Amino acid sequence: xxxxxxxxxxxxxxxxxxxxxxxxxxxxxxxxxxxxxxxxxxxxxxxxxxxxxxxxxxxxxxxxxxxxxxxxxxxxxxxxxxxxxxxxxxxxxxxxxxxxxxxxxxxxxxxxxxxxxxxxxxxxxxxxxxxxxxxxxxxxxxxxxxxxxxxxxxxxxxxxxxxxxxxxxxxxxxxxxxxxxxxxxxxxxxxxxxxxxxxxxxxxxxxxxxxxxxxxxxxxxxxxxxxxxxxxxxxxxxxxxxxxxxxxxxxxxxxxxxxxxxxxxxxxxxxxxxxxxxxxxxxxxxxxxxxxxxxx
Length: 296
Prior knowledge:
Strand content: 15-25%
Order of helices and strands: HEEHEHEEEHEEEHEHEHEEE
CATH topology of the largest domain: Purple Acid Phosphatase, chain A, domain 2
Low-confidence stretches: none
CATH superfamily of the largest domain: Metallo-dependent phosphatases
Structural class: alpha/beta
Number of strands: 14
Number of helices: 7
Radius of gyration: 21 Å
Helix content: 25-40%
C-alpha cells in the first residue's frame, strides 16, 4: 500500500500551491470588491414631530479612511451616489482620515470633491479614533495613545470641504430637530481622554423635538435611550470588513451593523466607505446608507 499523497513531496507541493493560490484569489477579490460602493436603504419611524416635516432622508457615511487606500476617485464615486439620493441631511460618523495626513493623494482636490455633496440641511461630522496623528504600519496604527493629537490640517480640510464638525456640541437645525456630535471615546484628538456624557449633552435640549446623535463607535446604547435620543448614527465596525472578523463583530457589539431598536432609540451603524488595515473587503460591502425617518 502506497504512502498517502499528503505525506509525499508532491502532496506537500500541491497543498502549498492550493493554499497560496487560494490566498491570492481571496486577496484579489477583496481588493476589487473594496472599491465597489453600494447603497443600502432603511426606514424608521419616531413618535415626534419635526415642525412641518413628515419625513426626512438622511444619508449616513463613515470610515472614509482617506489616505493610502482611499483617494480622490473613490470619493467622487461616493459623492455621486450621495447626490443621486437628493438627501435632506448628510452625516459623517468619523474616521474621515487614516491617521497620516501626508498620505492624502491630493488634499485640495479631495476637499473640493467633498464640497460637492448636496443636501437641504448640510453635511455634519464627528471625528473617530483614526482622526489623530499616528504612524501606520501595514495599514494599522502603532504607538496608539488616548492622548494622540489631531493634525490641525484635518480641521482646515473639513472647513474647506464645507463640512461642519460637532465636537461635544449640539445644533438645532432649522428649528426642526437637534443634531448632537460627540467626541470619540477612544481618541478624541485633544490630548485627553475626557468627554461630556450623553446626559450632559442633552440635558438642556427640548426633548419634544427629534434628537439625532453622531458618535463614531456604537457603544453605550442603553445610555442613549435613557437620555432621550431618537437615533444614533455610527460607524467604526466596518461590519467586520473581512473574514474572520465578520464572525467576531456580532459578539463584540450590540449592534455591529444595520438598524437595531434599543428601547425607543434606533442605533444605525454603517459598514463604512473605506477600509482599515488590509485594502480588502470579503463578506461585507463598502456602502452609503440612506435612512428615511418618518415623523409620527
